[in-house]
Amino acid sequence: MAIADVAEYAHLTESDLEALAAELDQIRRDVEASRGTRDRNYIRRTIAGQRVLEVAARLTIAATSGRRGWWLGAIGLAAAKSIENMEIAHNVGHGQWDWMNDPEIHSTTWEWDMAGLSSQWRYSHNYRHHVNTNVVGVDDDLGYGVLRVSRDQEWNPSYLFAPLRSVLLALGFEWGIALHDLYSEQERATTDVEKAAHGKALRRKIGRQMVKDYALYPALSLVRWRRTLGANVTANVLRNVWAYVVICCGHFADGAEKFEPKTLENETKPEWYLRQMLGSANFDAGPVMAFMSGNLCYQIEHHLFPDLPSNRYAEIATRVRALCDAYGLPYTTGHLVKQYLMTVRTIFALALPNRFTENGRLERLDVEQLQQVSAVP
């Protein structure tokens, strides 16, 4: 759909949109003007804390005996990897900390602890996704090419396997993202040599990542290498699933609108702001969950201001929510479980052609019913 086709937002006039954009611009100016020592301290403490947690987790895996110590180490390592992936690498890659002029904590130099190349991700994510949020056929992150999350996506028989694909994508999310970013880079390459270079660069990164996680650290554990290898695999899978859940809740849950390509034609900045607000969804989170999600529980605020420091999103959210109330706009949020179950419902429903689900029971199954089903042993 186009924004003008959404009846709930037709009450906004052009002057309303201009006024809304001015308010959002003021939020940006306020945050940019107040960035300083506390923000620097935040990201540096986060990086230092993440590294300490990773070392402690790896030592726990290698030095303790029994399953309790193994699980403690594996979960600690998964947490460390999630923090590095989401609160550090993702946000550094957005340029949120470039203003510090720190050569280490910079979008052009940080390489994350995942299979994919951060340089390839930056184009696919920062441009193809954030500029064209939820525009069908333009935003490659809309279902990642394997899930159907909008009726406007043309159905084909392969989508019958979408529920299974969603499980596999969650388990191997880092690999799916790596390939997704590679294809995006190769699509804009102008020569076969350039395409091959992108593929070679990704293979080198994958090689380094696999050696580190599945050869070097197990080898350092000597006779306990199997214990370390199993913990590394488990930590990576847990990190992948958590990242997948967070991303799905921010983009595919009910309330996150999808748009036709014509929406981009002559789109003004106020209209871009509005599309970001309508095309994103938050989930409710306290400080710990917000931190562990890279503050992507504030997905609406992140899409409005992707390059502002993530530790400011909570305070920005208060002002954005007030604007939504003032202009009669929805502020889509909810419990994490509810948001994710709505995503699961969408994936199952849209695995079938529209004629089977437009008025079908699967579409009418509400979230409370899904929660009851999921609670059955």
From TrEMBL:
Superkingdom of origin organism: Bacteria
Protein's recorded name: Fatty acid desaturase
Molecular function terms from GO: oxidoreductase activity, acting on paired donors, with oxidation of a pair of donors resulting in the reduction of molecular oxygen to two molecules of water
Keyword Endoplasmic reticulum (UniProt): no
Domain called Fatty acid desaturase: residue spans: 69-333
Coiled coil: 10-37
Bilayer-crossing regions: none
Biological process annotations from GO: lipid biosynthetic process
The keyword Coiled coil is assigned to this record: yes
GO cellular component: membrane
One Pfam short name: FA_desaturase
Lineage of producing organism: Bacteria, Bacillati, Actinomycetota, Actinomycetes, Mycobacteriales
InterPro entries attached to this UniProt entry: FA_desaturase_dom, Fatty_acid_desaturase
Keywords: Coiled coil
PANTHER family per UniProt: DELTA(5) FATTY ACID DESATURASE C-RELATED (PTHR19353:SF19), FATTY ACID DESATURASE 2 (PTHR19353)
